[in-house]
Amino acid sequence: MIIDSHVHIYPPEVVRDAGSIGEREPYFRRLTSSPVHRWGTAEDLLVRMHADGVDQSWVCGFAFADLGLCRLCNDYVLEAAERSGGRLRPLAVVPPLARGAMGEIERAASRGAIGVGELFPQGQGFELADERQTWRLAGVCHEGGLFALVHTAEPVGHDYPGKGDVGPREAAAFCEHHPETPVVFAHFGGGLWLYEQMPEMRRILSNAWYDTAAAPFLYRPGVFDALFASGVGGKLLYGSDFPLLGLPRYRRLLEGSRLGEEDRARLLGGNAQRLLGSLTVPLPCS
Questions:
Q1: How sure is the predictor about 280, in pLDDT bands with cuts at 50, 70 and 90?
Q2: Phi and psi of 11, rounded to 5°?
Q3: Predicted TM-score (pTM) of this structure
């Protein structure tokens, strides 16, 4: 089973009004003005999944700083998932510090959301390393049996999209503060996985997972060999970052690696199934 754990789709209203939205959402403007940016709808995604042989996609909208725009994205994603016959699994986007954000997560979870994200701390105005700003988010995820998907960027070698974005230090702090909350760090966690070679960090990062989003733009095939050789391959999820990229680009990258069929199967779906299987809702006190 092939599971794409990192997919974005956009409501028609967001595509239509992208210019005016960008005037009040600077981070959105920066990302969507990139020459590699692509728009994608739920219909586009299903067509691409059929062509690429992807069985299931975990789908999110854009994490705006404005809760109203996040609700618009969530409604679109939830409705698309409900129509998909299980092929699309929804995530909810919220600005974690906004009043009403936790209620929005609970609303999405009641309609089948499996996680929260992809969150953009820099663009949404919150500090991932500040426990005072993240405890509500972590608590709602824990209580609802959800995982968090958080954007992370490489601290050197790649400026995406600019200084001040989340890197390994901030990501590790979130894990240390909230060990009860499974968290997927996009883009290989900005290199966070390397620190799992330190025994104390392996313990702290026990709730951390990593996805491959944008890997063909960032790394050579040997990155997969390094991850699996280091013992972190069981926490790596295939994520395309659709509509930016699709499975064929990742298959070509994997073909240059030394991974065997079993490890490739874990990466392309087995690990994601294991993450979903680990999500539990705590039983109420009797």
A1: confident
A2: -60, 150
A3: 0.94
